Amino acid sequence: xxxxxxxPVREERRKQELRGHAGLVVVFIAIACFxxxxxxxxxxxxxxxxxxxxxxxxxxxxKYKTQLDEVEKFKAQKKDxxxxxxxxxxxxxxxxxxxxxxxxxxxxxxxxxxxxSLNTEAGFIxxxxxxxxxxxxxxxxxxxxxxxxxxxxxxxxxxxxKVKGLKVSxxxxxxxxxxPSAKASDEEEEGTDVKSAKVNAANGKVSx
Length: 208
Hints:
alpha+beta
C-alpha cells in the first residue's frame, strides 16, 4: 500500500491564502490612506479659502471704515450747522417779531382809538386804551380778529369815562399771538391732507 503525505500541499495552500489575505489588507489600507489624504486635502483647501475670504472681508472693512468715518463726520458737521442756523433764525424772529406786531397794530388801529399800553407775555398780548365809543371798539376787535397775527381776540373790560370833558370808552383787550408763516404752513399741510384723503376716497370708489 502506497502512502502519500498531503501535509506539504496543505501547508502551501494555507500560505497562498495568507498571502492573498495580506494583499487585500494592503489594498484596503492603501484605499483608506488615499481617502483620508483626500479628505484632509479638501478640508485644508476649504480652511485656506475661508481664511482668504476672512482676510478679504477684513480688508474691505478697513477700506470702508474710512468712508464711514467721513460720513459720520459729515453728519455731525451738518447737525452742528443746522443747530447754528436754527439759533440764528430764532434770534432774527425774536428781533423782527415785535416790530412786525407793532406794524400790524399800527395799520389796524383807527384814528379814533388810542393805545395807552401794550404788554406781551407767554404768547399773549394785552392792550389798554381808549376809543371814541363802543362801536369803534367793536370794529377794532373785528379788525384784530381778521389779522394773521392774533387769535381769540377778547374784550376783557370796557367802560365809559370823561377825558377833558369828552366822553370816551376805555378798554382792555387780550389776544393770542400767532406766527403767520407757521399758520400758513399748517394750513397748506391741512389742504394737502384733505386733497390726499379725497384722492384716496376716489381711488377706493373706482377700485370698488
